[in-house]
Write a structure and sequence with these properties.
This protein is of the alpha+beta class. Helices cover 33% and strands 23% of the residues.
Length: 340
C-alpha cells in the first residue's frame, strides 16, 4: 500500500534522532560456547560467527528493559532537538519487544521522561519503528499532534534458546542467535521543506507462521517453551527475495531517481550473508549502506534508528535517505526522507 503526502505544501519530517546501546557485549563465539555447555550439543567451531557474519552483539543486563533503552534514546533525541517534556504531545512506542502485555510500554517510557503526551504502542515485528514514524507523520499531517516522539527499545536477546534439546530445536531457534539489544528514537514534526516524501508498504500475511515468539498472547499465555524465537530463516529470506525488490523498484520509480539520488540507504540487517544478498538483488552500492550487523547483530526494529543516528549529523539539508524495512508477518516497507 503506497501512501504519499496529500499536499506538497504540508510536510512532516524527522528533526532529531538518538540511540542507546546497552553496555554488555556478547561475542558469537562466547554465545555458542554457552549454548553448547548448557545443551550438551557438540557444535562445529565458530559455527555462529561463520554462518551469520556476526562477531558480537550488545545485550541488556539485569534491570535494563525495552523501556529503559527507549527512554535513554528518547532523552538523547530530545536533547539534540533542545526539547523538554512539555514539548512532546504524542509518544509512540514502536517495537517488537515490550516490557509487558499490559499496560502499553509507551506509558512506562512516558513516566520515565515526564511527558504528558498521548501515548500509544505500535508493533509490527522489525518494521515497528518505521510504522511508528509513519503513524506520527500522519498524526502531524492531520493536525492531531504538533510534535511526536517515536521510540523503540529492543531486547530480543532474552528470546534466545540457550538450552535446545537437540539439533532440530537448535535449527528452529537459530535465527534467535543473531539477536542483539538496542534503543532508538526520533522527533517527528512539521517542516517547511524536505521531510518524509514517500512511504510504501507491502504485506504477505499468509506467511505469518514463518517466524516469531508465540508466547504471551491468547494462544500461548503461559509456558517457557513459547518465550523463545522460533522460525524458518531460509523460508523468510526466500519470501523477501521474491517480493521485496518490487517495493524498492516502485519507490525508486516514484522518486524519479536511481541509487545516486540517495545519500544513504538504511536497511534492516539480519546477518551479513542476508545483507550481501540484498545488495546483490537490488544493486545498491556498498558505500550507500550503513553496516551495523557484524558488531550489533539483528537489533530488530531499532536497526534503522541506530543507523540513522550514525549518519544524521553528516547529512546536509536536501540530502535524501531511503529506509528499507523487513519484518516478520511478513511486511516490507520503504520510506524516503529528505533532511530539512
Amino acid at each position: 500500500m503506497f501512501t504519499s503526502l496529500p499536499d506538497p505544501r504540508l510536510r512532516a519530517g524527522i528533526t532529531a534522532v538518538g540511540s542507546m546501546l546497552p553496555d554488555g557485549v556478547l561475542s558469537s563465539d562466547a554465545l555458542q560456547e554457552e549454548v553448547a555447555r548448557r545443551s550438551g550439543l557438540a557444535l562445529p567451531p565458530r559455527l555462529l560467527t561463520q554462518a551469520t557474519g556476526i562477531a558480537a552483539r550488545r545485550v541488556a543486563g539485569p534491570g535494563v528493559y525495552a523501556s529503559t533503552l527507549a527512554a535513554g534514546a528518547a532523552r538523547r533525541a530530545m536533547d539534540a532537538a533542545g526539547l523538554t517534556a512539555p514539548d512532546i504531545d504524542l509518544l509512540v512506542f514502536a517495537s517488537a519487544t515490550r516490557d509487558m502485555v499490559e499496560p502499553a510500554t509507551a506509558h512506562i517510557v512516558q513516566a520515565e521522561l515526564g511527558t504528558r503526551a498521548h501515548a500509544v504502542d505500535v508493533t509490527n515485528a522489525c518494521n515497528s519503528f518505521v510504522n511508528g514514524i509513519d503513524l506520527a507523520r500522519s498524526m502531524v499531517m492531520a493536525g492531531r499532534a504538533r510534535r511526536a516522539l517515536v521510540v523503540t527499545g529492543e531486547t530480543p536477546s532474552r528470546a534466545v534458546q540457550y538450552e535446545p534439546a537437540d539439533l532440530a530445536e537448535l535449527r528452529a531457534g537459530f535465527a534467535g542467535y543473531t539477536f542483539g539489544d538496542a534503543g532508538a528514537a526520533v522527533v517527528v514534526e512539521a517542516v517547511e521543506r524536505g521531510g518524509i516524501l514517500d512511504v510504501d508498504t507491502e504485506t504477505h500475511s499468509e506467511h505469518w507462521e514463518v517466524g516469531g515468539i508465540p508466547g504471551g498472547g491468547s494462544r500461548h499465555p503461559r509456558g517457557d517453551a513459547y518465550t523463545y524465537f522460533r522460525g524458518d530463516g531460509r523460508e523468510l529470506r526466500g519470501v523477501f527475495e521474491k517480493v521485496g525488490t518490487a517495493v524498492i523498484d516502485r519507490t525508486l520509480h516514484r522518486a524519479g531517481t536511481d541509487w545516486d539520488g540517495f545519500a544513504k540507504v538504511l536497511v534492516h540487517q539480519v546477518t551479513v550473508p542476508y545483507l550481501e544478498r540484498f545488495a546483490e538483488l537490488t544493486g545498491v552500492p556498498a558505500d550507500k549502506l550503513v553496516v551495523t550487523v557484524p558488531e550489533l547483530g539483528n537489533i530488530a526494529s531499532a536497526t534503522l534508528g541506530v543507523q540513522l543516528d550514525r549518519v544524521f549529523g553528516g547529512l546536509a539539508p536536501g540530502e535524501r535517505v531511503l529506509f528499507v524495512g523487513l519484518g516478520g508477518g511478513i511486511s516490507i516497507m520503504t520510506m524516503v526522507w529528505e533532511k530539512s
